[in-house]
Amino acid sequence: MALPSDTRSTEFVSLWSLVGQWSLVRKIRHADGRENSLAGNAAFTRSGPRLIQEESGLLQLDDLALEARQRLVWTQDGPLLRVHFADMRPFHEIPTGVADPEAVHDCPPDRYHVAYDFCRWPIWRSAWTVTGPHKNYIMNSTYTPV
Fold it and tell me: What SS3 state is found at 109?
């Protein structure tokens, strides 16, 4: 059973805590039992007041391996971290100083719920639960400093 957020501590305190190179391992479990995976890297680099997250890796889809890339932009607004798509459309936001923040991104007809886990900082995780008419999976990612 998880402890309430206010009883957990984390050294992750600001946007700039993410700067650097990370090893990325991602597992995707579909509701029908299929499992996919991604192994790669994530780089978080400063760009003025923004932090650019660039992920790349090899996505294993059944018998097919594909190169996958993703780019997100992070900003900090007081106690909030705001995550944007590469074109700066809002994605979600989380509070700083919380070991296990959660957020939701609604993109009708799909819903994306993320639970971050910074309890073992500098190793951290994100768990996405994605649901919609054609989507139903849980995607767990683990980031480890390189």
Answer: coil
